[in-house]
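Protein: Cytochrome C biogenesis protein CcmA
Species: Phaeobacter gallaeciensis
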Amino acid sequence: MTLNVTDLSIARGGLPVLEGLSFQLMPGRALILRGPNGIGKTTLLRTIAGLQPPLSGQIDGAEDQIAYAAHSDGLKPALTVTENLTFWARVFGSASITPALEAFDLTALQDRPAGALSAGQKRRLGLSRMLVTGRPIWVMDEPTVSLDTRSVTMFADAVRAHLGQGGSALIATHIDLGLDEAEVLDAGAFKARLPALDDFDEGFL
Ligand SMILES: Nc1ncnc2c1ncn2[C@@H]1O[C@H](COP(=O)(O)OP(=O)(O)OP(=O)(O)O)[C@@H](O)[C@H]1O
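Structure follows.
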């Protein structure tokens, strides 16, 4: 499934942040979203994931295809690692959580409540959820926060394997994931122009 974004404009808190943004994400491809703090990367990912409507423009190919990993890990702290993954596997109808446990080195932690994991372990559990969704388009917001070097490599390997199986990934990150094949989308190039102050004043006069 190809994700097609056409002439998209988005807002946060009632203010336009990005406008005129178009791109295509094809199966087997990764797109790295870059741009300075506050430019609108999270807002873009939330919009593509269907959590908020765009101001204008088209998002095609996203419906029921996207697995979204937000800033927050979204874990249930009282449930164990296995129970958290099993919950998501049932939501998405996946048969097995074993590949997710193995890909993110969680097997030895499987009986520990998520609330008792370290920050990096929580992040690994949150990311491993992407595998049990079975969804082809991974949309991820700063996925490597709290991860050590080895875990970043683990994550990049999981993304590479996903691309190899015909999946795709849109990832907002400030670090180099070592995904040589990935393209880069600079959100800064699509910064929305705020209305000129003169125009604003004229509205009152
Ligand atoms: N809940 C909110 N209400 C109003 N404005 C918000 C809200 N969340 C974020 N913003 C503003 O929207 C703009 C875009 O924020 P966004 O989180 O999308 O940026 P970002 O590129 O992801 O930043 P970062 O790299 O710091 O995570 C920023 O100016 C931010 O201050």
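Remarks: The pocket of adenosine-5'-triphosphate is lined by residues 12-13, 17, 35, 37-43 (CB under 6 Å).
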